[in-house]
Specification:
The strands form 4 sheets. A 6-stranded parallel beta sheet has the order 2-1-3-4-5-10, sandwiched between helices. Strands 6-9 form a two-stranded parallel ribbon. The protein has 310 residues and is of the alpha/beta class. The longest helix is centred in the first third of the chain and has 21 residues. It has one domain: 3-Layer(aba) Sandwich (Rossmann fold). It is built from 9 helices and 12 strands. Helix 2 crosses helix 3, helix 3 runs parallel beside helix 4 and helix 7 crosses helix 9. The site of dtdp-4-keto-L-rhamnose (TDO) has 20 residues, from helix 5 and strand 7. Its EC number is 1.1.1.133. It comes from Hohaiivirga grylli. Its cofactor is Mg(2+).
Length: 310
């Protein structure tokens, strides 16, 4: 182990992002420690949550604190607003307070669902927020709690996250096809930027290193949009997944375009979730790959490499 390795403490374990951070720590020359459920329950009393996190983070001697935990069940959140608010709205403020007490930067992760998706084009960091549902509302209050607790923060808004592990849209599509579904209806009127969690993790290591190197540089702090390059609607994303599955000899399904009205869900989703990433590129020198290239990497891990045509 590198004695000079940056020490990063991650809240959350077993989720898409926490798993990716753990997996990629070494190749970034960092040492990562994680604390997640069930050892830590972010919906427990704020006093208990703060005590547990403070103890673990200070014992590790962390130089950066990353919150990778969240309540991410968008529809279920409509029925459990208090639980979602405790985890997404309140806990991030406690985590950021611990970072402030220890004088270390806090990196927090948020979502495109803080926007209502009614504006055209790509959203910038200071565009007005207006979440449509409980998940987005609670994530927005988490952003505000972090900002209120410490100026030494980076809030990274990402979207449409997929990974070779955990629960995500790519794995859901592949599973439905492998269960024998030959046609799937998928919404084609919600647009956004699919993002590989492997790219998010790489960006977080870069941002962590920048924050650590320049503790007094305010321009490195604040809100940043961090999504895969390019754009898609969910039906296009599904078609790309199945095209990749076919090339790898795995089961695929035909995709039928649906409107959101034809695919009713408990929570409303934004129609336009496209995020502009020029700020993080300019300030942190983070360039996100095209989502189609990153999808290939994730599909290689999930179902193997492409079969050669000859
Ligand atoms: N997934 C997506 O499409 C998107 C995610 N984001 C944001 O990215 C971040 C990472 O999300 P991602 O990794 O994809 O999410 P996952 O759902 O894969 O992981 C969430 C993690 O939070 C943990 N968690 C949930 N409840 C608690 C609790 N009460 N106490 C402690 N830990 C808890 C989960 O643990 P357990 O599994 O044990 O419940 C899990 O490890 C989150 O901030 C999310 O809001 C933003 C945009 C899109
Ligand atoms: C499974 C399925 C989903 N859909 C639709 C529902 C939804 O509009 C879209 C994607 O489905 P999901 O369940 O992955 O959507 P959802 O859980 O809303 O995904 C969101 O998760 C949270 C955590 C975020 O922060 C967002 O960025 C976004 O990634 O596709 C279909 O149209 N057909 C299907 O067969
Ligand atoms: Mg979901």
């Amino acid at each position: 182990m590198n004695a000079h390795a940056l020490k990063i403490f991650v809240i959350g374990a077993g989720g898409q992002l926490s798993t990716a951070l753990e997996e990629r720590a070494e190749q970034h020359g960092t040492t990562v420690a994680l604390l997640g459920y069930p050892e830590l329950d972010l919906s427990a009393s704020p006093e208990l949550v703060e005590t547990q996190i403070f103890k673990a983070v200070s014992a590790f001697g962390a130089q950066i604190l990353v919150n990778a935990a969240a309540y991410t069940a968008v529809d279920k959140a409509e029925d459990e607003p208090e639980l979602a608010q405790a985890i997404n709205g309140v806990a991030p403020g406690i985590i950021a307070q611990v970072a402030a007490r220890l004088s270390i930067p806090c990196i927090h992760v948020s979502t495109d669902y803080v926007f209502d998706g009614t504006a055209e084009g790509y959203r910038k960091e200071d565009d007005p927020t207006s979440p449509l549902g409980v998940y987005g509302q609670t994530k927005l209050s988490g952003e505000m709690a972090v900002a209120a607790a410490t100026t030494d923060h980076a809030i990274l808004r990402t979207a449409w996250v997929y990974a070779p592990f955990g629960a995500n849209f790519v794995k859901t599509m592949l599973r439905l096809a492998s269960e024998g579904r030959t046609e799937l209806g998928v919404v084609a009127d919600q647009y956004g930027c699919p993002t590989s969690v492997l790219d998010i993790a790489d960006a977080i290591f870069k941002v962590a290193s920048n924050l650590n190197a320049k503790p007094d540089d305010a321009t490195l702090r604040g809100i940043f949009h961090l999504v895969g390059a390019g754009e898609a609607n969910w039906a296009e994303f599904a078609r790309a997944i199945f095209a990749g599955a076919t090339l790898r000899g795995a089961p695929s399904a035909a995709v039928k375009d649906l409107t959101s009205a034809e695919y009713p869900t408990k929570a409303k989703r934004p129609f336009n979730s496209r995020l502009d990433t020029s700020k993080i590129k300019h300030i942190h020198n983070v360039t996100m790959p095209d989502w189609k290239l990153s999808l290939d990497i994730v599909l290689d891990r999930l179902i193997g490499s492409k079969k050669s045509a000859s």
